[in-house]
TrEMBL record:
PANTHER family: RNA POLYMERASE II TRANSCRIPTIONAL COACTIVATOR. Keywords: DNA-binding, Nucleus, Transcription, Transcription regulation. Belongs to the transcriptional coactivator PC4 family. It is found in: Nucleus. The keyword Nucleus applies. Residues 1-57 are annotated as: Disordered. It holds the Pfam family PC4. Residues 55-107 form the Transcriptional coactivator p15 (PC4) C-terminal domain. GO terms for cellular component: nucleus. This is Transcriptional coactivator p15 (PC4) C-terminal domain-containing protein. It comes from Chironomus riparius. The keyword Transmembrane does not apply.
Length: 116
């Protein structure tokens, strides 16, 4: 008798959220609700439920500012939709930059060119 195959209820266009397992509950509480607009700033600036500003690069990638132990950080991270809560949660893929590292990257931008 053959083994039962698991049925998946997702289509092939579902993207990275299917590849990222649900994140463990983080101590910093980076849970993010989708679509919360900030009351000030530019139209593209949004605010998560901890009050951190973020900007969407595309559907599953965000740039955000956060503080930890009194220092500010810039995060570039992939997010996935938690099917249980309906909230966007941070995935494993991403990078965190200090203010100094962010400034160094900005200084390098004029020198970086895509070949094509």
């Amino acid at each position: 008798m053959p083994k039962n195959k698991k049925l998946e209820d997702s289509d092939s266009d579902s993207g990275p959220e299917d590849r990222n397992p649900p994140a463990k509950k983080s101590k910093s509480g980076n849970d993010v609700k989708g679509g919360n607009d900030s009351k000030g700033g530019s139209d593209s600036t949004k605010t998560d439920d901890q009050g951190n500003s973020y900007w969407e690069l595309d559907r599953n990638r965000r740039v955000s500012l956060s503080s930890f132990k009194g220092k500010q950080y810039l995060n570039i991270r992939e997010y996935y939709m938690d099917k249980g809560t309906g909230q966007y949660r941070p995935g494993k893929s991403g990078i965190t930059l200090t203010k100094k590292e962010w400034q160094q990257l900005l200084d390098l931008v004029p020198e970086i060119k895509f070949e094509n």
